[in-house]
UniProtKB/TrEMBL annotation:
Top-rank taxon, per record: Bacteria
Keyword list, A-Z: Cadmium
Residue ranges of every copy of the Peptidase C83 domain listed in the record: 7-251
Signal peptide stretch: none
EC number: 2.3.2.15
Principal EC category: transferase
Organism field: Desulfoluna limicola
Protein name: glutathione gamma-glutamylcysteinyltransferase
Length: 276
């Protein structure tokens, strides 16, 4: 009975999400008014030639293997991009689920989910990232920076700009974004996780290394679109599943990248309504 209920609820929810996409399309909002720009291969090669971190991230990016495994694909990409290992630390993104027990990761990515919930809210992503880094021998400091829909647009944009400027200026820093994919692309407005590839402070644009298999090449979005997507509450439709905002996981690697200790630090925005 519970399985039937959750199945029917998911079908109803997906229909509501489709209606929300139609609503945004009619109003010309989000990606329907400001589409993402997929980068041609020649431009990607030029950027990679001048940005070693971006090059490593692109070369280690792999599409998620299941409908809900964007977190595993993203964490594997970042772990493999860190340091100068000749062979990947993570051979298969799904291996992470067998070795990292934090956050009930494997259960949350199963078809049934954990207690009816699939995928990782931001705070749970903040639990599994330090655990995965530590398991693979990487010393790093991890910050979980939440963005909320009740923040003003100016505040969200300025906070995102400061983090991205730090990312651009620190080659040993990596970003994993927890965002509303429908805020970046003309798809369902659902939670998604992917690495940030690059920030251009001159044009104020962000390159996303989306692990969705339907997005085989990186795409570029504006700062305002980026800040909007990581603060989405999905119209309140996904609150029962723990999704009422997104944010960024900031990973600052220690020199050399080999583990001696690993620190996780949570830093949310002022006066959060909920962390999911």
């Amino acid at each position: 009975m519970n399985t039937l209920f959750f199945t029917l609820f998911r079908h109803a929810l997906r229909s509501l999400l489709r209606l929300r996409v139609l609503y945004l399309k009619i109003l010309g909002r989000g990606p329907h008014g400001e589409p993402a720009r997929h980068l041609p291969h020649a431009e990607l090669d030029t950027i990679k030639a001048g940005d070693p971190r971006f090059k490593r991230l692109v070369e280690n990016r792999a599409s998620q293997e299941t409908e809900s495994s964007c977190s595993a694909a993203s964490v594997a990409c970042v772990i493999n991009a860190m340091g100068n290992c000749e062979t990947p630390r993570v051979e298969s993104q799904m291996d992470l689920l067998e070795t990292i027990r934090a956050g009930r990761w494997k259960e949350r990515l199963s078809p049934e989910g954990w207690q009816g919930r699939r995928g990782l809210p931001l705070d749970v992503l903040g639990d599994v990232v330090p655990a995965a880094l530590g398991y693979h021998g990487i010393e790093a400091e991890v910050e979980v920076l939440a963005f909320y829909p009740h923040e003003s647009e100016a505040t969200r944009i300025q906070r995102a700009r400061e983090i991205l400027n730090r990312f651009a200026g620190e080659p040993d820093t990596y970003l994993i974004a927890h965002f509303d994919q429908g805020a970046f692309l003309p798809v369902l407005t659902i939670p998604h996780i992917s690495p940030v590839g690059r920030w251009n402070p001159d044009t104020e644009t962000v390159i996303m290394l989306d692990v969705d298999p339907d997005q085989p090449t990186p795409y570029e979005i504006s700062l305002s679109r980026f800040a909007d997507g990581i603060a989405s509450d999905y119209g309140g439709l996904l609150r029962p599943y723990g999704y009422n905002h997104g944010g960024l996981v900031v990973i600052k690697a220690a020199s050399g990248g080999e583990v001696s200790h690993l620190e996780s630090r949570f830093a949310n925005a002022p006066s959060p309504r909920s962390s999911g």
